[in-house]
Amino acid sequence: MVGNISVATVVSFLVTTFPSIKLGLMVGIGGGVPSNKVRLGDVVVSTPVGQFPGVVKWDSGKVHEERFERTGSLNNPPHSLLTALSQLETQHNLVGTKIPDYLQELEKKWPRLASKSTHAGLQDMLFKASYSHIQKPVSGTGEDTDDEGDDEKQGSCSLCDKAMTVKRTPRDMLVHYGLIASGDKLIKDATSRNKLNKDLGGGVLCIEMEAAGLINQFPCVVIRGICDYADSHKNKDWQEHAAVIAAAFAKELLQYVQPSDIERQHPAKDTLDDG
What we know:
Blueprint: H1 4-17, E1 24-32, E2 43-46, E3 55-57, E4 61-64, E5 67-70, H2 79-95, H3 99-109, H4 111-117, H5 147-154, E6 175-182, H6 190-199, E7 204-208, H7 212-215, E8 220-228, H8 239-254, H9 259-263, H10 268-274
Parallel strand pairs: 1-8, 2-6, 3-6, 6-7
Antiparallel strand pairs: 1-7, 2-8, 4-5
Helix pairs in contact: 3-4
């Protein structure tokens, strides 16, 4: 399921089929914006920033006097989830996250699953924005393929010049709170990524393709594990680990959501009906 329109359709069926649902967490993977200190294996959580409610639909707008102006607005995350996020962030600042503990638990209980989702052996390589990916030779019929097929053929960066990587000091994973840019177009170019970030004020942490189709129809917070840098070196190496990291954060967050806050929340179906 890719794209805002597809997500909106699924959500419409979801809240109609389960009318008692009040809110949710949108958990998945996305591309990180390295200029804002986001790295592979980090977690990005949508929270309001300035004029933006945590998620911005970056490709929605109109051309006016030769300039592209974004139009429309998205809803803020539910107050109950923002309160839980604030409490969890405070806890992280005091004693750190429980995500490493959850990963150890995963390894003990489901070792086969853990072997596929661990970051062991994975390299976090950030190439300079001016350096494009070196494509592996692909034998085939020459027929056009979709983007997902291209990603599979693209594979790792084994042919890319490692001298063109950005030198960074290794660190543990971090959780970032702020702006997620969502659109129907796939970003696989560092120049486009950096321009998008600049156009939105320089605070974009993550770029993905589903969240904007969900926010106005389903009260939620978006949680993304970072699996690539939305550049030409985009591949699937980090996807499974990023998905597990995002799910681990969601598990930790749910411990801070208060049932009494949920009881005061209107069903998500009401939001859909009002729209």
